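TA notes. Do not distribute before section.
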Amino acid sequence: MRTFEERLERLESLGEQIRKPDIPLEEALMSFEEGIRLTKALEKDLEKIESRIEILMNGPEAKVSESPELELFDNEE
């Protein structure tokens, strides 16, 4: 399994490929499909990371839907 960063890099590469004006339609479609799969997997990873951060910030009893308490950083500008 590739790391998050490797998958993100692949997604960026696919985006660049799709933007090329001379890419065949079938190849563009295949790149688009792979990009959608990567995007969904990356979103799931980000949701897991967000949940871990919420637990770290608010404790293990925090509900997943609650936003982290970041008052520590509220006074910084």
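Switch to the second chain here.
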Amino acid sequence: MQTRLQIISVLVSGGLFLFVFELVRRKRLLERYALLWLFAAAVLLALSVWGDLLNRISTAVGVQYGPAALFAVALGFVVVLMLHFSLVISKLTDQNKILAQRVALLERRMTRAIGESDEDDEPAQSGSDLTASR
């Protein structure tokens, strides 16, 4: 890999690593999601620093240009992260649906309970009206 390209890839990978670390430090990114990003950044940083390892991997895979292999690895991480987040969103959607149904059932029960108590109050008031009129 060319030296200039290697320097740029090290800077970008290191920048990604530091950016994710800063997001975790400021509590803007949960640790469970940050681990995936930090792992991806560490692998990209390692492949950027050790150009020989990247060349071996690219030769083993059949890619003739080392930086293209680095790009393919980064793209693979992005696909894995997207799949992971899709799974998380699907689970949250199901949980949200169940929660909304439970809230609706509770509202219905509460409305019925209030309605029954109002009906219980009404005969008492009407009875007191009857005694007052006598």
